[in-house]
Amino acid sequence: MGIGYVVGVIGGAILAHAAYATIQYRAVLKITEEEFTRPPMDVMMELLLGLALCMWAGLAVPAKFLSVVPHSDENRIVSLPANLDFMIFNHRGRALPSDPDLKLKT
């Protein structure tokens, strides 16, 4: 495990702690019946530090890039419909019933 992963985990832990501190601060404000305007300055600094660490880790730990093979079978279009203006892709909506009785009547 490289240093980028460790910095990312630390940044995530700092962000989680800042969220927990904000929740606790709002609970205290509810007890004292004060209005919430913004988190305290220490929580804001914690948020910025966690954000910076997570962004640095995201840029420092890149994934391995895979080259695109233009002549592979995965990149081929097997057949195109006759009407190229409207194409139907395989998605979750195909599992829904398409019975005309289920449509709303106006």
Automatic annotation (TrEMBL):
Protein name per the record: Membrane magnesium transporter
Complex and partners: Component of the ER membrane protein complex (EMC).
Example of a GO MF term: inorganic cation transmembrane transporter activity
Assigned keywords, A-Z: Endoplasmic reticulum, Membrane, Transmembrane, Transmembrane helix
Keyword Transmembrane helix listed: yes
Localization per record: Endoplasmic reticulum membrane
Family note: Belongs to the membrane magnesium transporter (TC 1.A.67) family.
Cross-referenced InterPro entries: MMgT (IPR018937)
GO cellular component: early endosome; EMC complex; Golgi apparatus; plasma membrane
Transmembrane region(s): 45-66
Membrane topology: Multi-pass membrane protein
Native species: Dichanthelium oligosanthes
